[in-house]
């Protein structure tokens, strides 16, 4: 029994019996924390059950789990991550990490000692409203009401009848739809609402209800996850091994049935300095989200190419009226999914540590309001994982220095995403033809922490000046997902994979050499993207005036986009002024190829 599991040793007392002998009604009571709760039923067992339910109902009408726990006499708070059974790594989930966990999990049947034991990773999957409701109201029957859409964009509606009322839930899979129906019952009948732990709520970019943002986040995750499974033979391929999975989804006018996966990538490592290419043939940075963005750039080139033929109707771009260049047609949006928080500033926090909001609530204040580590630009280290803060003095990386064994430094993913939120995700070369494209959302599969992600990906640049249209400081939707990803055990592989719309299979690259399995340049290396640029340059209308002479190098092609370059320096100056350190650039020789 539920109550007994939470408070073992409670005494139920038979306080009376009424009704005729052939149909007796038993009355039981139980005292919890000095309050008496009564229940009646045709058997002693059912009367006891009712009394327990009444007691439970009264506890769980607290706004948050810690209040309920204090009421239960259990001094375990939601803020105390070390004592929490939910995986602190997962951080966020609307159906987890709240009262539901503790009240529902049969594993929590013993007192505090048991709660403090580390729990298996996959346990979070089992803690949901469905289990909670099942323990309170066993034997409920869930019905599939409808099933709509095609494979990737299915919508299931499940219903459950409680006390004569149908409660419904809808989602892209039956399990989630069922959980949402159960949640509807918990809200309506038991006054238990899904709640977010402070710091883990989505940060919206529009006025839509929270549920809509979560649905979008789950939709993005579902598409990327399914595509990756499909590409790796449902986990049977050796290339399904990964630490971080990322991908970009394009949505059209919010119509989920039209959503398309643009890229799916994995990877967590950077090139070994001695393999750097001065021909643009090696991938320096094989972190999953960085590769996904490269795939997107290749996709954007392919969409521009449609304007060379007579296929502009099929392109996501339209030409400016009376001007050079192109812009996205209305309704197209891009969403980045990363299975965990991007390395660097967004990941420099302890999920075990209270954030300022929680501290303030307890009257403690942030112990480290001006922590030096907050907001710092950080670099990935050569061949390894993780990041280190940039030095306060400028770092000039030189080609010969790196060749001689100086550690090659690459800006962290948090810093690169920050850059995309001011300069756009398209980069300098594409800016010859198109206006900046910004991410509409960033969805994290785990380790989502709203305030840290917010600071990392755009708040660090709030003071930026001289930003002129079409550029602006982009503030995408930031969100976790409902079914948080568990951490990927094992060592990080030395390969990364990429797939993009329009290509058949996965390309596998060696993260140490930055080349593909066969030692050839990747389809998304600088040189490959530059080839696409050269195919379009001079043939498509452009925003940047054409040069009179042939473009000598890749570097010059980038520097021709003056507005972009100017804003890039403005960004770096803003970060430096704010005390976040100096952006570290790659050796100049990298970009001198033709
Ligand atoms: Zn990274």
TrEMBL record:
Source lineage: Eukaryota, Metazoa, Echinodermata, Eleutherozoa, Echinozoa
Region span, Disordered: 87-129, 349-380
Single GO cellular component term: cytoplasm
Provenance organism: Stichopus japonicus
Signal sequence extent: none
Record-given protein name: Putative double-stranded RNA-specific editase 1-like isoform X2
Keyword presence, Nucleotide-binding: no
BP-aspect Gene Ontology terms: adenosine to inosine editing; RNA processing
Keyword vocabulary terms for this entry: RNA-binding
Domain A to I editase: 263-593
InterPro entries with a match to the protein in the record: A_deamin (IPR002466), dsRBD_dom (IPR014720)
Molecular function (Gene Ontology), one example: double-stranded RNA binding
Basic and acidic residues composition-biased segments: 350-368
Stretches assigned to the DRBM domain: 1-61, 125-191
Domain of life: Eukaryota
Keyword Mitochondrion: no
């Amino acid at each position: 029994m539920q109550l007994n599991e939470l408070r073992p040793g409670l005494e139920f007392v038979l306080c009376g019996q009424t009704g005729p002998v052939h149909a007796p009604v038993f009355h039981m009571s139980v005292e919890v924390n000095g309050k008496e709760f009564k229940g009646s039923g045709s058997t002693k067992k059912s009367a006891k059950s009712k009394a327990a339910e009444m007691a439970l109902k009264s506890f769980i009408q607290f706004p948050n789990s810690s209040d309920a726990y204090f009421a239960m006499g259990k001094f375990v708070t939601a803020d105390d991550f070390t004592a929490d059974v939910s995986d602190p790594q997962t951080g966020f989930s609307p159906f987890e990490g709240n009262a539901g966990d503790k009240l529902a999990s049969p594993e929590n049947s013993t007192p505090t000692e048991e709660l403090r034991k580390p729990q298996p990773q996959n346990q979070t999957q089992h803690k949901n409203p469905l289990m909670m409701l099942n323990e309170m109201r066993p034997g409920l029957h869930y019905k599939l009401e409808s099933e709509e859409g095609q494979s990737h964009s299915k919508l299931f509606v499940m219903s459950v009848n409680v006390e004569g009322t149908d409660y419904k839930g809808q989602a892209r899979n039956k399990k989630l739809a069922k959980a949402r129906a159960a949640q509807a019952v918990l809200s309506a009948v038991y006054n238990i609402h899904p709640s977010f732990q402070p710091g883990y709520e989505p940060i919206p970019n529009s006025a839509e209800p929270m549920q809509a943002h979560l649905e979008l986040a789950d939709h993005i995750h579902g598409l990327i996850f399914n595509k990756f499974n499909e590409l790796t033979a449902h986990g049977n391929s050796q290339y399904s091994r990964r630490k971080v999975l990322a991908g970009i989804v394009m949505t059209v006018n919010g119509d989920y049935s039209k959503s398309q996966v643009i890229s799916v990538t994995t990877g967590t490592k950077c090139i070994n300095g001695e393999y750097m290419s001065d021909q643009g043939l090696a991938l320096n940075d094989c972190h999953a989200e960085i590769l996904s963005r490269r795939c997107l750039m290749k996709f954007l080139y392919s969409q521009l190419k449609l304007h060379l033929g007579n296929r502009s109707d099929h392109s996501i771009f339209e030409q400016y009226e009376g001007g050079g260049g192109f812009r996205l047609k209305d309704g197209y949006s891009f969403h980045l999914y990363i299975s965990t928080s991007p390395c660097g500033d967004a990941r420099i926090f302890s999920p075990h540590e209270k954030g300022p909001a929680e501290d303030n609530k307890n009257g403690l204040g942030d112990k480290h309001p001006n922590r030096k580590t907050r907001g710092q630009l950080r670099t990935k280290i050569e061949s390894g994982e993780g990041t280190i803060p940039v030095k306060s003095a400028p770092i000039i990386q030189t080609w010969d220095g790196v060749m001689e064994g100086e550690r090659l430094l690459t800006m962290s993913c948090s810093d690169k995403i920050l850059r995309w939120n001011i300069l756009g995700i398209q980069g300098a070369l594409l800016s010859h033809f198109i206006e900046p494209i910004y991410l509409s959302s960033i969805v994290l599969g785990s380790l989502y922490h709203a305030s840290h992600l917010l600071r990392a990906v755009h708040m660090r640049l709030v003071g930026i000046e001289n930003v002129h249209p079409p550029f602006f400081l982009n503030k995408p939707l930031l969100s976790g997902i409902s079914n948080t990803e568990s951490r990927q055990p094992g060592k990080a592989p030395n390969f990364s994979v990429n797939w993009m719309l329009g290509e058949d299979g996965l390309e596998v690259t060696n993260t140490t050499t930055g080349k593909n399995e066969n030692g050839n340049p990747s389809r998304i290396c600088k040189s490959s993207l530059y080839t696409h640029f050269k195919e379009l340059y001079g043939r498509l209308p452009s925003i940047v005036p054409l040069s009179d002479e042939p473009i000598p190098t890749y570097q010059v092609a980038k520097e021709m986009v003056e507005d972009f370059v100017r804003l890039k320096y403005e960004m770096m100056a803003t970060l430096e002024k704010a005390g976040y350190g100096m952006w570290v650039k790659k050796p100049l020789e990298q970009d001198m190829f033709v």
